[in-house]
Amino acid sequence: MNKITSKDNAAVRRAMRLMTNARERRKAGLIICEGARLCSDASDSGVEVEELFCTAAAMEKYSDYLEKLMEKAHDVYEITDEIAKKISDTESTQGVFIVAKSPVVENDLYQLNPTGQYVLLENLQDPSNVGSIFRTAEALGVDGIILTEGCASCFSPKALRAGMGAMFRIPIYFTDDAPAAMTAAVQRNMRPMAAVPREGAADVTGIRFFKGAIMCIGNEGNGLTDRLIGACPEKVTIPMNGRAESLNAATAAAILMWEMMRSYI
Questions:
Q1: What whole-number distance in Å separates Cα of residue 180 and Cα of residue 187?
Q2: What is the pTM (predicted TM-score) of this model?
Q3: How do residues 215-238 score in pLDDT, each as one tens digit?
Q4: Partner of 229 for a Cys bridge, out of 51, 182, 194, 208, CB 3.0 to 4.6 A?
């Protein structure tokens, strides 16, 4: 184990860039995780851990997690509390970080199980929303999540923390043409549903769900694109009685997924 006391250390500077810069993460093909449990989950999922950073206090407090991480990391650094605060993206850091190879997602949409239950996220911009949806999806037993190219990365630091590592455990699919993907799903006897806040859509609480549903959830401000709505044979909405016109995307997704999955929980 090497000790780092300078904030100008090259490994520290890279970790700081990875924490704040999405382009840097994409270019390097790396992710950065913060927190003992999340770092351990990432390692247990099979990602290749390049570097482990931890404070002396963290080594004592989270020894159960760190012993395994130290065995798997290529390089291990003991850092000061000040450096941990510099790297951290949280207000109160545990002082544990890993830099790891970005997971390679190669799942093909044609591998979707026609009797599975899925969620499609179109152009969500808030990584915390993306992460929260992954966490809820895992808890409810959703079979996988489909992301469009315009979505915030599910492997960004904020998404990883909000998802509590769920993206390491739930199947992920990507599509650059969601409408075409849903048209193909219909041909496989699957049931794409567009979640829309509009009159004429079916009340999601009154729908009888069967296996093969794909719940499509759109951008925080603009919702689903017209093309994707048109590609979904069914439109569903969440009934609301208060003065609020809409729900937070992660909250809406949780309600929609609960209705989709409650018959199978």
A1: 11
A2: 0.93
A3: 999 999 899 999 999 999 999 999
A4: 194
